[in-house]
Design goal:
Blueprint: H1 2-25, H2 29-53, H3 56-78
Helix pairs in contact: 1-2, 2-3
């Protein structure tokens, strides 16, 4: 079980760093949108790790971040520009 938790945490951390880099580069809506998709995956991994370890502060934070990241996906990949 410890190996699963460690793997989840490292995947969450790595994907979060890559997503932040993608968003910060400002290479356009598409890259930023995919950065938010990666952030969503990172949030899911953090939520899973938090649930397995009983870390409810981390879990609560990532529930909120999950919603914010879904909004980012909607704004950059789903919504039409100029609307």
């Amino acid at each position: 079980m410890e190996t699963l938790i460690t793997t989840l945490k490292w995947c969450a951390a790595g994907s979060g760093v890559i997503a932040a880099f993608m968003v910060s580069l400002d290479f356009g809506r598409r890259v930023t949108g995919w950065g938010f998709v990666l952030f969503v995956g990172s949030s899911v991994a953090w939520l899973s790790g938090a649930a397995l370890t009983g870390d409810w502060a981390l879990g609560t934070q990532n529930i909120v971040l999950f919603g914010i990241n879904l909004l980012g996906v909607y704004r950059y990949l789903v919504r039409k520009t100029g609307v």
